[in-house]
Write a structure and sequence with these properties.
With 91 residues, the chain is of the alpha+beta class. The chain is globular, with a radius of gyration of 14 Å. The chain has two helices and four strands, in the order E-H-E-E-H-E.
């Protein structure tokens, strides 16, 4: 199934408390249960003003639906074409 990176602009998200991050995570999980689809949240990276989320889903439309229902921004959805890390250099 395709993997996607989602960019979400949320000013100040990097300063959110553990409770605020937990509440956002709970909301996301609740929406995913309600959608009852094959959308799976893998992880999210929190930066100063953005979240970069990794999801596995059959298509980007379901990811956008998750964002719409949850009230989350969804600035960009990009399908992952390949992955690389330091071991990629080895050959």
């Amino acid at each position: 199934m395709p993997r996607y990176v989602i960019e979400r602009s949320i000013p100040g998200v990097g300063t959110w408390s553990a409770d605020q991050l937990r509440a956002a995570s709970q909301k996301s999980c609740s929406v995913l249960r309600d959608i009852e689809s094959q959308v799976h949240w893998v992880t999210s990276y929190v930066t100063d003003d953005k979240l970069y989320c990794v999801y596995v889903a059959p298509n980007p439309e379901l990811i956008r639906e998750h964002a719409r229902r949850g009230g989350f921004p969804c600035d960009a959805v990009a399908q992952v074409c390949a992955t690389m890390d330091p071991t990629t250099a080895e050959g």
